[in-house]
Amino acid sequence: MKTEDLRAMTPDQLAESLLSLKKEQFNLRFQAATGQVDKTHRAGEIRKDIARIKTVLRSRQATA
Description:
CATH class: Mainly Alpha
Radius of gyration: 13 Å
Keywords: Ribonucleoprotein, Ribosomal protein
CATH topology: Helix Hairpins
Strand content: under 5%
Distance between the termini: 24 Å
Largest sheet: none
Helix content: over 70%
InterPro entries: Ribosomal_protein_uL29 (IPR050063), Ribosomal_uL29 (IPR001854), Ribosomal_uL29_CS (IPR018254), Ribosomal_uL29_sf (IPR036049)
Protein name: Large ribosomal subunit protein uL29
Number of domains: 1
Number of strands: 0
Family: Belongs to the universal ribosomal protein uL29 family.
Structural class: mainly alpha
């Protein structure tokens, strides 16, 4: 995800996206623990996407 795309989203869409990414991160942790993970790089991408979403949400709270 790009920051530009995230800034164009509504707070509800951001919250929904954050929730789905956290679920995916949870599932990847279980796959890694059992040795079934195929895309090992995806965990880092998810972590960074979550941070981007939280940053956009926090910046909107600071300006409001």
